[in-house]
Amino acid sequence: GENVEQHPSTLSVQEGDSAVIKCTYSDSASNYFPWYKQELGKRPQLIIDIRSNVGEKKDQRIAVTLNKTAKHFSLHITETQPEDSAVYFCAASTNAGGTSYGKLTFGQGTILTVHP
Amino acid sequence: EAQVTQNPRYLITVTGKKLTVTCSQNMNHEYMSWYRQDPGLGLRQIYYSMNVEVTDKGDVPEGYKVSRKEKRNFPLILESPSPNQTSLYFCASSYRDRGGEKLFFGSGTQLSVL
Fold first, then answer.
1. Which of A33, A72, B45, B64 is 20 to 30 A (C-alpha) from A54?
2. Beta strands of chain B (E only): which ranges?
3. CA distance to partner chain B, nearest, from residue A94 (Å)
4. Which among A6, A49, A106 has the least Cβ separation from residue B100?
């Protein structure tokens, strides 16, 4: 089955700096890569996702890049703010665009701390 | 308001005492799933359901049971809890668009088994 590795496990940055979280996946058939953000004591929420037919996707200060050849994808946060402090999870699944259930395999999570 | 309702938020129990964590969604989603969250291990899927009366094992199903008698409800049952099931549990419902599964999580249940 799919295996997703996420690094780093913790990341500390100063407000205004950029933050990058990286994930690698094992199953070359994976074609959908979402990122979830979990604030302290809250539930995970989807913040951005990308399909394998797209190399990069951007939404305001966050962006995700995908390298299918190397089987890795990354989350980039620019101009970080204290409210970006949270645990971030990457995930991978197959069957994007299909009609059957596409099980998500999650990475281990990254604790991001943004210092004012 | 669209939501996934999970109860209880906190639960302390003793080894061997059967318990049920309830989960209900009001978004008419076909897919529902249960995850446990442990430090350093991320979110691991316990069970999932593709529709009423259709369930299947996830990555860590041992010691858990589920049922899906109604589309909106997907309870998680621990018949004989053990201390290694102490964890933070999340229920999720999801829908598919052309991108992939979009998960909506409940607020979580922190379970401690003594």
1. B45
2. 4-7, 10-13, 19-25, 31-38, 42-51, 54-57, 65-66, 76-78, 87-96, 101-105, 109-113
3. 8
4. A49
